[in-house]
Structures are given as structure tokens and as C-alpha cells.
Amino acid sequence: RTQTRPTGNQPSMTPPSEAPSGTAWVYGDPQQVLYPRNSSGAYCGIGENKDKPYLLYFNIFSCVLTTNIIAVAQNGLDCPTPQVCVSSCPAVSWTVATNQLSQTVGQVFYAANRSFCLPGVPGDMPVHQSLSQELCPSFLLPSSPALGRCFPWPNSTVPEVPEISNTSISQGISGLLDSLNA
């Protein structure tokens, strides 16, 4: 059976029993769970992002839920971190090195095919400025797509950032997934 994405206020034809989150269906907009949106509100995989079907969270650790799970489901798995639509999820760990902070976004991100910055970040912007304004991620973790989102591999580590551990990665992923099962 084919299914089209709802637009505007048009209801989705997916019955609640088939929606990934009953909570989002009953209390919120299931379209926000089914189809991820970036920080500017654009859907991934359609329109200007048709070649970018996956959502990358800059800092998955901010997704550890200390808030109401129903509220998170209503907001479509939204975390308090910038989110960008990407063509593929990161395959390897990477961290902005100290010596790269004075370089430009073009040198560090764009020249290395790391197109994980928010749209419109100028290539001549200093990396330190892009990080302080949360326009580009300070690190990437190897991830796999699920539900249109890049979820880090549970055994991922970032040696350059000691506070990032397997436990904190698992907690971030669990926080997002718990919101689906609310």
C-alpha cells in the first residue's frame, strides 16, 4: 500500500495501531515523529532536503530526558540541541581539534566533506564562532539511521572528549526511544 506524507492540517491516514508512538498520535502530531524536521522546521527527505533524509542531532546527550516524556513525544522527539538534515549518518567518530578552532568552517567542515553544519553557515566563518553559536557540531559519532534519525552506535566513544562515554551515549539514545514508547 502506498502512503503519502500529510501536508498542513491534512490528517495522516496511518491508523494509531501502526504509528510508532501512540502518545504522539493521541496527544500530538504523529507526522513529527514519522518525518523528522531540522532546527528551522523543514522536513528531512522532502523539498529542499529531498537528498537529505536523515536527521542528525548535534549533541545526542541533551536528549537524556529530564522532562515530561509526553511533551517530548508531542514535539516529535525534539531535543534541546541543533538538528540538521543530512544525506547520510556519520560513519566515524570525529572531534574538532584545538588547532582547528582558528580555521574556517570551509577548511574544517566543507573541504573534508563534513556537511553537518546548519544550512547557510558561510565557509569563511571561524570554526570557534560556528561552535559558540551552535551552527556546526563540535563532534560526530558513528551512527545508523532509525526512524529517519541518526542514532549513535551504543559502543561509540570519543577519546578526545572524556565525558562522552558508552553510558552517556546509551542514555541519550534511550531518552529518545523512551519518548516513542510513552
* Low-confidence segments: 1-25
Instruction: Give the end-to-end Cα distance, rounded to a whole number of Å.
Output: 28 Å
What is the average of the pLDDT values? 74
Major β-sheet profile: 2 strands, antiparallel
For the record, the count of structural domains works out to: 2
Classify the beta-strand content into a percent band.
5-15%
Shape type: globular
Order of secondary-structure elements: HHEHEEHHEEEH
Estimated helix fraction: 10-25%
Relevant terms:
single chain; 182 residues; alpha+beta; 6 helices; 6 strands; disordered N terminus
Can you tell me about this structure?
By secondary structure, this protein is an alpha+beta fold. The chain has two domains: 112 residues, no CATH class; 41 residues, no CATH class. 24% of the residues lie in helices and 11% in strands. The strands form three sheets. A two-stranded antiparallel ribbon has the order 1-2. Strands 3-4 form a two-stranded antiparallel ribbon. Strands 5-6 form a two-stranded antiparallel sheet. Strand 5 and strand 6 form a beta hairpin. The longest helix has 15 residues. The radius of gyration is 17 Å and the shape is globular. The relative contact order is 0.18. The N terminus is likely disordered. It comes from Sus scrofa (Pig). This is Chromosome 7 open reading frame, human C6orf29.
